[in-house]
Amino acid sequence: MKGIVLFLVCCAWSVCLCGKGDRGGSYLFIYFPSNDNENIYYALSEDGYNYTLLNKGERIIAADTCTMKGGLRDPHVLRSYDGWFYLVATDMKCAEGWSSNRGLVMMRSRDLIHWAHFTVNFPVKYKGTKFENVVRVWAPETIFDPVKRKYMIYFSLLTNDGSITYDKVYYCYANKNFTDLEGEPTYLYDRGSATIDMDIVFNKKDGLYHGFFKNEGQGGICQVTAKSLTPSKGKALGSQWSKPSQPLQQTKVPVEGVGVFQLADKKSWVLMYDCYTSGYYQFCSSRDLNKFSFLKNTQTKGAFTPRHGTVISLTSAEATKLKVAFPIIK
User: Is 23 exposed, middle or buried (0-12, 13-18, 19+ CB in 10 A)?
Assistant: First the structure.
């Protein structure tokens, strides 16, 4: 997402990123609330920073209905060019330890209300390869690759056989129906130390992919950029990315679960991350995805305790349907 073919692909890509129809100025935060409650919840906002729980504060997607491990974490949602919403999430139960993750969950929906779900078990799918030895398949996300014209799903991998000795970002492409992964994972990026929670967005203004991630080695949220998601022919894997930026977070407390989304007016971007030891989400603003300024701390308390999740913009009609299906908490 060159002639007529390029035009059509770029149009589809634009719709994939921005969605269709009226932009109502509403935003949906999809997240899991705690290590003791690994299910998916929804919260709605009119400004992108202040959220109200839907479904009277109850879970929307129950982990015990769609996972192997019984825990559903780090949900990422993408609006596709053909009208589907694609969701991927970490299939892990915290109580079993941080190296108990063996795969991911893929979901699709037309309306954000009804979801079809599919699990990918790496030890089974990749038996006989190093990927059967994964102990982490963390924080999967989806982005459209206009070169391959497929949806790329990327995630952080760690194995216990010495082949991947710290968390590195790999990717696979989703199959046509978004029910499984195609081929073996391929290396995408790491900065020489554990690299997790990567979130990649495309900025039409500068023509670059911006990848944000948590750098476990130095701490904080850093950024790399690239002209294409994968390297040009003959170039080394990972060579497409720039050198990493300095930490971008506007706080000194520990942060993780980075997410980036564009406001409905298309004039500014929001960088958000979970200040997970301090009880708030921090939101920062940027016009160009290079310089960020502090915007707001949103307290996470009471019924609203979001952990790593995704914010997407909605049309007025979509927001209304969600409020009918999942009434706002009173």
Answer: middle
How many domains does the chain contain in total?
1
Give the CATH number, domain containing residue 43: 2.115.10.20
Neighbour tally for 228: CB within 10 Å: 12
Neighbours of 126 (CB within 10 A): 19
Domain contains 178: yes
pLDDT digits (tens, 9 = 90+) for 126-155: 999 999 999 999 999 999 999 999 999 999
Pairing of strands 103-109, 116-121: antiparallel
Using 50, 70 and 90 to split pLDDT, how confident is the model at 13? very low
Is the residue at 330 inside a domain?
A: no
Q: Is residue 46 domain-resident?
A: yes
Position 158 in a domain: yes
Q: How far apart are CA 167 and CA 288, in angstroms?
A: 29
- The model's confidence at residue 4, banded by pLDDT at 50, 70 and 90, is very low
**Amino acid letter, 87:** L
155 vs 26, 89, 182, 312, CA distance in Å? Answer: 28, 10, 14, 20
Length of the chain: 330
pLDDT tens-place string over residues 258-289? 999 999 888 899 999 999 999 999 999 999 99
